[in-house]
UniProtKB/TrEMBL annotation:
<dbReference type="InterPro" id="IPR050951">
    <property type="entry name" value="Retrovirus_Pol_polyprotein"/>
</dbReference>
<dbReference type="InterPro" id="IPR043128">
    <property type="entry name" value="Rev_trsase/Diguanyl_cyclase"/>
</dbReference>
<dbReference type="InterPro" id="IPR043502">
    <property type="entry name" value="DNA/RNA_pol_sf"/>
</dbReference>
<protein>
    <recommendedName>
        <fullName>Reverse transcriptase/retrotransposon-derived protein RNase H-like domain-containing protein</fullName>
    </recommendedName>
</protein>
Amino acid sequence: MNPLKCAFGVTSGKFLGFVVRRHGIEIKQAKIDAIVAMPKPRNLHELKSLQKKLAYLRCFIQNHAGKCQPFSLLMKKGTPYVWNAVCSAAFQDVQSYLMNPPVLATPI
């Protein structure tokens, strides 16, 4: 073991971009702020970037596939990129959900 990489007697620590505490696993606030401050995607490249960020946090987003379905429909091959009201509502829903993210904990 490398003593410089070990931490003993701590109550929390960062691991794979998450904050691990005694009561559960949380999302780092910087990752939430990046998605909340993000403007709506203007093209397919920006939409793919959003999808990747949301996929990283999928275990924290209840019904992730259902909430992101409008984005998946836009990414189908041959579909023109048209950001509509359904996509805007889904984007705002995900952003507001991440304002109060859950803490993942082991079942009791």
